[in-house]
């Protein structure tokens, strides 16, 4: 008797799981059809003289095509520029270009002098 009940529960569970999967699968395809095409553009630039942080990026997307570029100044004074694009299912395709910056001097770390001052605890015996 117990074996029949367990088999019935297992069979019921398998049928319920299949129904749940089919409903979710159909619903997922239905939802994808309602998404609006993606369109955006953005850009930013950072130039911090104090830290030497120089970098930026720009990117645009229309439907399934994304293209962009980002750049930064490497520690050795070269500007690295990466141009990329994605078109449909092609994957991420990038080209990297590096060029030295004439006259580039990396920011020097600032040294702060700290004076040691003896501390009196004020204990008197």
UniProtKB/TrEMBL annotation:
One of its GO terms (molecular function) is structural constituent of cuticle. Pfam families: Chitin_bind_4. The keyword Signal applies. Residues 1-17 form the signal peptide. It comes from the Eukaryota. InterPro entries: Insect_cuticle, Insect_Cuticle_Struc_Prot. Keywords: Cuticle, Signal. PANTHER family: CUTICULAR PROTEIN 30B-RELATED, STRUCTURAL CONTITUENT OF CUTICLE. This is Pupal cuticle protein. It comes from Culex pipiens pipiens.
């Amino acid at each position: 008797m117990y074996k029949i009940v367990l088999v019935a529960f297992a069979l019921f569970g398998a049928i319920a799981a299949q129904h749940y999967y089919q409903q979710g699968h159909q619903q997922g395809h239905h939802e994808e059809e309602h998404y609006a095409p993606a369109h955006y553009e953005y850009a930013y630039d950072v130039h911090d003289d104090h830290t030497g942080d120089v970098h930026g990026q720009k990117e645009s997307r229309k439907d399934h095509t994304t293209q962009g570029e980002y750049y930064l100044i490497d520690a050795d004074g070269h500007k690295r520029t990466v141009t990329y694009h994605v078109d449909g299912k092609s994957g991420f395709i990038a080209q990297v270009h590096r060029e030295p910056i004439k006259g580039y001097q990396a920011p020097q770390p600032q040294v702060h002098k700290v004076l040691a001052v003896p501390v009196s605890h004020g204990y008197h015996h």
